[in-house]
Amino acid sequence: MLFLNACKNRNGDRPPVWLMRQAGRYLPEYRTIRATKSFVEMCTDPDVAVEVSLQPFRRFGMDAVIVFYDILFLPGVMGAPLVFTDEGPRFERPLRTSADFDRLGRADLTSLDPSKGTGAILESLRRLRREVPREAAVLGFAGAPFTLAAYLVEGRLGQGVDRMRRFLNEEPRLAHRLLELLAQATGEYLSLQAAAGADALQLFDTWAGLLDRKDYAEFALPYEKIALEAVARAGKPSILFVNGCTHILEDMAASGASVLSLDWRLPLRTARERVGAGLGLQGNLDPAALFAAPDAVRQRTSSLLDAMSSDPGYVVNLGHGVLPETPPESVEAFVEAVKARKGVRTAALDPARGLP
Amino acid sequence: MLFLNACKNRNGDRPPVWLMRQAGRYLPEYRTIRATKSFVEMCTDPDVAVEVSLQPFRRFGMDAVIVFYDILFLPGVMGAPLVFTDEGPRFERPLRTSADFDRLGRADLTSLDPSKGTGAILESLRRLRREVPREAAVLGFAGAPFTLAAYLVEGRLGQGVDRMRRFLNEEPRLAHRLLELLAQATGEYLSLQAAAGADALQLFDTWAGLLDRKDYAEFALPYEKIALEAVARAGKPSILFVNGCTHILEDMAASGASVLSLDWRLPLRTARERVGAGLGLQGNLDPAALFAAPDAVRQRTSSLLDAMSSDPGYVVNLGHGVLPETPPESVEAFVEAVKARKGVRTAALDPARGLP
Predict the structure, then answer these.
(1) Residues 70-109 of chain A whose Cβ lies under 8 A from any Cβ of chain B
(2) B323 contact A CB<8A
(3) Has A21 been annotated as catalytic?
(4) CB of B148 within 8 Å of any CB in chain A?
(5) How far apart are the C-alpha atoms of A191 and A341, rounded to whole Å?
(6) Which of B151, B153, B166 is the best mutation test for A, with the most CBs of A within 10 A?
(7) Is A265 a catalytic residue?
(8) Domain assignment of residue B60, yes or no
(9) CB-based contact (8 Å) between B286 and chain A?
């Protein structure tokens, strides 16, 4: 399996390729289903979630299929009332005081009703692992404790998570209590996903890059570690994504993740020099680059491959999720440019050809 | 004047201190005025704008007074209809097509009515330079072309300026046309502010850190340079702020700015090592740190000073603007901790004392 080979630093002819948020609104077949169902219904009905997870795989044949779901269902079932609106998800009562926190319990993740709670992702993973050919990986995922806590404190997607950063300064002990609770739950949740059939697990700490290095080391990294250790105990590789991670890369490398997923601002070769060999690296085309003409997409993908295709631990991906309205032709051009590289690793190792 | 000394790498006993967005809602005397006037009225009536600019200076005695205004009035008078709502400013018709752009003209900045247009900032600067003691600097400012263009394209504050990054890929020629137009206008605008009495001019390219290095070099830096050159021709020092600038610091150093204003994620000592001597550095306490107890604020400020107070080109500031609801006592603790450092430079130069 190309994807697991990359996690073990054993890339062969070409690196594996998939895209964060590869299932979604940019696909007409997704919009057809979405026209009759809510986002929550789509995530929590395994029939639909499996279908939607498979749509991009059928069209483009990526090397990994990520289960269709949302990182916020976990805190949702832990006691924080969650609504999905046209502007995105929102927690109805943002957590800011000690009393707010006392309402948040620790869910028994195994006993949840698959049609409503986090159980749905487990059932979807079981079915996906049966339906997806063995050559492709099935991926599970969760939000990291800091990012989940930021959503809970902000209430909704915020510019710069100012409210969360304020909370860390005003109520550091309460923050640690919340993060610990989320870390334990996230670790269990990822273990259950591994047992349900996920070949690897991605942890999204999307907002942790808004912390300085000291705060990242205090409020994000220790809780990422707890969740990632649970994945390691389950015997599966893990991927850690942090958006805007240029200033904390070395700390991420110490998280225990098997693969670091990097945003588009950090050149991958620089990242490789900074973290050394051994860790996988995933990324990092700017998702906005998929709005250029297909030729330009092929060109940009080619540049990524020129730099990284001889790297034994490289996974081709975007630097963040696919954006709404992305042309499907561009996603195709991106995936095809990688698949057309069969044998390039050998070529790139030819010293006469050199590397950029 | 302490501030201008820092711009010339001639800090004496202590570095100067001021705070981005130091005038604003966190001050009760600001809220008293805001209760009877709209934000736009406050910016565009020089009587009010001067009063509000002076409020933090009277309370805390910073070393610089920045004029109260908004970066979006310039594109506003250039032909983009702008509204200020409780959620922040918004352009009513986001610019996305060629036809949208043709509506945007180049304003004759000198002839604007001071009670409505960008003329108000010039009148406020004239009065401030008369009213503020010579020991303190009066600062003007503008949004940088990329950040203004991002507002125009997004319509309003957006997470990650996805729409703008998409636009750069879909319509690069149109983007350059818009950026060029904004750069010329911004350069003239800053020159007029210099002539009106500003001692130094800050250029806010808040969102340019969301670009990778290649896109920053193509779509942000060249237009910053045009605006900053106009400041240099006017014989005044300039300050360039970019949020999230860890990956583009060396490019910013080549912008022509006299001082680089850094967000909280890049340690200032590291920044100094990367850019070398000669440039001023401003920053960079996390604004969220002002929500900690005053003792903790003093401690964090002290750490900044321990690292940087012997640096001849250092300006103490936050890493971004003061947040809403910041306790005024924390701002006081921050400013006082700097002012109490008289003579520390000599002390810090004592090798027996060392530097952290």
Answers:
(1) none
(2) yes
(3) yes
(4) no
(5) 35
(6) B166
(7) no
(8) yes
(9) yes
Is B354 part of any domain?
no
Interatomic CA distance for residues B216 and B214, integer angstroms:
5
Please count the CA atoms within 13 angstroms of the CA of B226 that sit on its side-chain side. 19
Nearest C-alpha neighbor of B166 from the set A13, A188, A288? A288
Look-up of token digits 């920044």: B271
- Three-state secondary structure call for residue B138: strand
CB B11 within 8 A of CB B314: yes
The secondary structure of chain A in percent helix, strand, coil, rounded to multiples of 5, reads 50, 15, 35
Gap between the terminal Cα atoms of chain A: 28
The answer to whether residue B221 sits within a structural domain is: yes
The pLDDT confidence band at residue B117, using thresholds 50, 70 and 90, is low
| Annotation marks residue B108 as catalytic | no
Q: Convert the pLDDT of each residue in B1-23 to its tens digit.
A: 999 999 999 999 999 999 999 99
Q: How many domains does chain A have?
A: 1
CA B53 to centroid of chain Cα atoms: 14
CA distance A246 to chain B (A): 7
The reply to whether A355 falls in a domain is no
Give the domain extent around A42.
2-349
pLDDT of B33-83, one tens digit each? Answer: 999 999 999 999 999 999 999 999 999 999 999 999 999 988 888 878 888
**CATH code of residue B25:** 3.20.20.210
Residues A90, A86: Cα–Cα separation, whole Å? 10
